[in-house]
User: What shape does this take?
Amino acid sequence: MISTTADLERFTLALFAGRVVLKPLLKETMFAVPAVADFTSGKSATLTAGFSRIVLPHGTEAWGKTGGRHGYNTATGGTIDGSRTLVYSVNSTDAKGEETNPVAFGIVLAAFAK
Assistant: This one.
């Protein structure tokens, strides 16, 4: 799919509002994290059928999806209530690395700051 960040934000807002998938199904599939530990790290799972949950240092819980190819990294997501959304695309040489890109994480922290 080829889209712009504005397209992704409109889609994210519609999805979180229940206009793409009905809210009960959305909660059951996209926002239901299984109560299991990550096989590698032993930490609690953060992935669902469609999103990843992140709890930021100040306590805000955000949900989103990231993607990347060598040279860029992109993400879309927000809070369940839609009060905060974020879509970004950054040039990155470590886009396919296992660790979170520090520039991208800085953008997330700034967007969801209290």
